[in-house]
Design a protein that fits this description.
This protein is an alpha/beta fold. The chain contains 6 helices and 8 strands, in the order βαβαβββαβααβαβ. The protein has 2 domains: 114 residues, Rossmann fold (3-Layer(aba) Sandwich); 30 residues, no CATH class.
Length: 178
């Protein structure tokens, strides 16, 4: 599995859950100074590799690409998929438009899946919460997963928190505190 934007809040969670589930994880992180920290996310008995964007092809083919960045280049990763692989588009902070060579998608017999929690029904959100409760929360309780916090801000400093969220070089979650 390839996870792009793997140093962010969702990325650090995705890397850990995938590795704990037995996936061989390649984490794409632009800032090389964060590579060591991303590798350390690997739960006991697993490994996580870290690469910069553009070096992802050296570890291909992938069964799954989790796209957390978006942008114009993201759908070129179809070329990195194994036959019948999947690209899961979860984030688009790097841009909401991307050209797709549809023939590459067809040749790979691949799936392109977009998802978000926002657009789900209450019933879907309830099912998702139950799945997280039974599959992920026990891993947190066993300390096999952790939640890295990049920075914390008081509620009245929300503009600073959002500036940090939009800025480069984060590792983990940006949190607002009461």
């Amino acid at each position: 599995m390839l996870v792009t934007g793997a140093a962010g809040g969702v990325g650090t969670a995705m890397v850990q859950v995938a590795a704990a589930s037995g996936a061989h994880v390649v984490a794409s992180v632009r800032r090389t100074e964060l590579h060591g920290r991303v590798k350390e996310l690997a739960p006991a008995g697993s490994t996580v590799e870290a690469v910069v964007p553009g070096q992802e092809g050296g570890r291909a083919p992938y069964d799954v690409v989790v796209e957390l960045v978006g942008g114009e280049e993201c759908l070129r990763r179809v070329e990195l998929l194994r036959a019948r692989g999947k690209i899961l588009v979860v984030g688009v902070q790097g841009g909401t438009m991307a050209p797709l060579r549809m023939f590459d998608l067809m040749l790979a017999r691949a799936q392109l899946i977009g998802t978000t929690i926002r657009g789900r029904t209450q019933a879907e959100k309830t099912l998702l919460a139950a799945t997280v409760r039974t599959s992920v929360v026990p891993l947190l309780a066993e300390r096999r997963l952790r939640v890295p916090v990049d920075s914390a801000f008081p509620l009245d400093s929300y503009s600073d928190a959002y500036a940090r969220l939009a800025g480069p070089g984060k590792f983990g979650k940006v949190v607002m505190q009461f």
